[in-house]
Each structure stands twice: as structure tokens, then as C-alpha cells.
Amino acid sequence: MNDFSKTAIRQNSTMTYKKFLDEYFLPDYKQRVRKRTYDNRLSSMDKHLPFFYRYKLSDISAPIIKKWQNQLSKNYSSAYIRNIYGLFQLSLDLAVKLGLITNNTAKIVGNVKKQKQKVDFWTLDEFQKVIATFDVTNYYELYTYVSIYFLFMTGLRLGEAQALEWADLDFKNETIRIEKSMFYKNAQEFYYTEPKTRASIRTIALDDDLIKLLKEWKEKQDSNGGSKYVLSYNGLPTNKHTLRHVIKRHSNLANVHHIKIHALRHSHASLLISLGINALDVRDRLGHEDIETTLGTYGHLYPHTNREVANKLTGIVIQQKSEIHRKKKFSGNQYIKKAGK
């Protein structure tokens, strides 16, 4: 039931979706979520919700919504569509609550079916082919080489890597401390944010090879103006557009399939699993909130050990003949009276 009177529906029946979005939903949504969440999702809403701008709230019917949903399905993944559809549905929830429409038609249509996403990654061999295509004598290419190498060998989320400062790196103990993330819109607008989850705050040990590379990179960076950010060549934090281009270009040079930036995180997890690292350690290194997230994402990459378990159980129990002599007990019907009694 609406929180407002039914007269509100009649009074506001001419309100367009755009007017409602700008004056009611966006201000309400902005105060309910974190700034980074709002900024990230605003770009998606600006891109896809204009489809409804010309319609009155009361005229947004199930066929109209379904037509929009079908158009999205031609170009985007189910996960992406589910997110943007969820925002649209949330906006109509508020319209119902304010008494501007009688029911949420988006709920009647329903969201697209959730599909299991394939985990894409580079194998160690593919990664080695890619990094072999960099000219590390060039300052800019060294920067991009270090960025790709670092993400592959640490599994950090892009935002975590963007926010990483040299002060967060302990060369003596060979560790990095992740305590923040970053929202990066452009070179003029970027800021620190809280980590994705509480488990995202963590300390990661680095291998000797990566430490050696980072020391060399720090010297090169300092000789070219320096930066407080680890992954930076011009004083600004790295950005996803640069890394996307680098991955595409060097994948082509190495004749290796393209992957998304986030797939470098998947690549790191795959590498750990191939090295026999247990799921709990993978969880802690990646900063997952719980083991279910780790196993739900990467469980299929663990080798099938069902037969191995059975083989290890074979012969583990040794049966020995007992030397104890037990007094034979009467096994007949004990309730039948013996003769003469």
C-alpha cells in the first residue's frame, strides 16, 4: 500500500519519468548509498534510463519495459543488465511509495535470468608471452609493464591498485598494506574510497622478483618527476582506459586472447590454485569476505580429488584379530522356561 493518499496518483499523473528521476529518485538514492557507489551507478543510469524519459510514469507499461530489456540483452551481459534493471525497478518502488503510480510494473516483467559467469584469465604461459612483448627500456612501456605484472602477481582489484601509495609498501618485510580503494572518473576527478569489504583491508606478502621490479620502477619513476602512487608515470594514478588499451595491444602482439582488467585478478587466483595454495589462503590474499565467495568463483579450478581421497583412505584401517575370549551367551528365546522349572 502507498505511503500517500490515492489523490497523489491523480495529481501527479502527468509527471514524466525524467522529472521523477531528477527530482525524487536520484536525490533519495544519493543519500542512501556511498559516494563511490552513486558515482559508478549514475553513469549507467545516464546511459540507459533515458529510454524512459519521454514517458509519463503512469504510461510505462510492461511491453515498453520488455522492449527496453530486450534491447539491452543484445549488447550486454546478464549481470550488467540485472544491475541496471535493478536500479530501474528501485526507482519505480519509490514512485509507488510516493503514490505516483499504483504498482511497480518492473516487478511484474521481472529481471533477466541470472547466468553463471565464465571466469576468464591468462595462464602463466599466456602471461609470459604477453610481458615478453614490452620494451622495458622505454619509460612509458616500463610503467605499463609494471602495472600489468603487478596486478597479475598480487590479484588486487583495480581500485586498490590505483590507490596504492609507496608509503603502503614495506620493502624490508616485502609486503603491501591495502586499506583504501579509489574512484577514478578522469584526471581531474578521482578520490579515495573505503575498501569493498572489511576483509579487503589486508596485508599481502610479495615475492622477491616483484620486490626487485618495484625497486627498479621506483628509481625510474623518481628520475622522471616521481609520484606518491606506485602505479603512475605522470604523477596521476593509473586508469582503466590505459590498461585496457595496453592489454589489447600486447595481447595482439603475443597472439593471446584479450582479457578484461579484472581478469588479471582471476589470473592470479588461477595461478595460486595451480600452485596448490588452499582456498583459505586464496580467500585472504584476494580479500574476500567469506570462503563461499572464493569457492563460488574459483571452486571449479581446483583439481577433482574425489578419487585421490578414496585412494588415500584405502588401507588406512588395519583389521586385527582380537585375542579376547568372550563367554558364549545364550542366543535362544530367553523367555522360554527350561524343563523342570
Description:
The protein is mainly α and 341 residues long. The chain has 2 domains: 7-109, DNA polymerase, domain 1; 124-299, hpI Integrase, Chain A, CATH 1.10.443. Helix content is 49%, strand content 6%. The strands form 2 sheets. It has a 3-stranded antiparallel beta sheet, with no helix packed on it. Strands 3-4 form a two-stranded antiparallel ribbon. A hairpin with a 4-residue loop joins strand 1 (169-170) and strand 2. Helix 7 packs across helix 11 (240-254), helix 8 packs across helix 12 (263-274) and helix 13 (279-286) packs across helix 14. The chain is globular.
Short description:
The chain is mostly helical and 341 residues long. The chain has helices spanning 7-11, 17-32, 35-48, 62-73, 78-97, 105-109, 124-131, 139-154, 158-163, 208-222, 240-254, 263-274, 279-286, 291-298, 306-313, and strands at residues 169-170, 175-178, 181-186, 189-193, 202-205.
Features:
49% helix, 341 residues, DNA polymerase, domain 1, hpI Integrase, Chain A, 3-stranded antiparallel beta sheet, 2 domains, mainly alpha, single chain
State the fourth-level CATH superfamily of the largest domain: Intergrase catalytic core
Helix content: 40-55%
Determine the structural class based on helices, strands and strand pairing: mainly alpha
CATH architecture of the largest domain: Orthogonal Bundle
- State the end-to-end CA separation: 84 Å
The outline comes out as globular
The unreliable regions are none
Total strand segments = 5
User: Order of SSEs, N→C?
Assistant: HHHHHHHHHEEEEEHHHHHH
- CATH domain class of the largest domain: Mainly Alpha
Number of helices: 15
Rg: 30 Å
Beta percentage is 5-15%
What's the CATH topology name of the largest domain?
A: hpI Integrase, Chain A
Count of all domains = 2
Side by side, the strands of the main sheet go 1-2-5
Pfam family, one: Phage_integrase
Family: Belongs to the 'phage' integrase family.
GO molecular function: DNA binding
Keywords: DNA integration, DNA recombination, DNA-binding
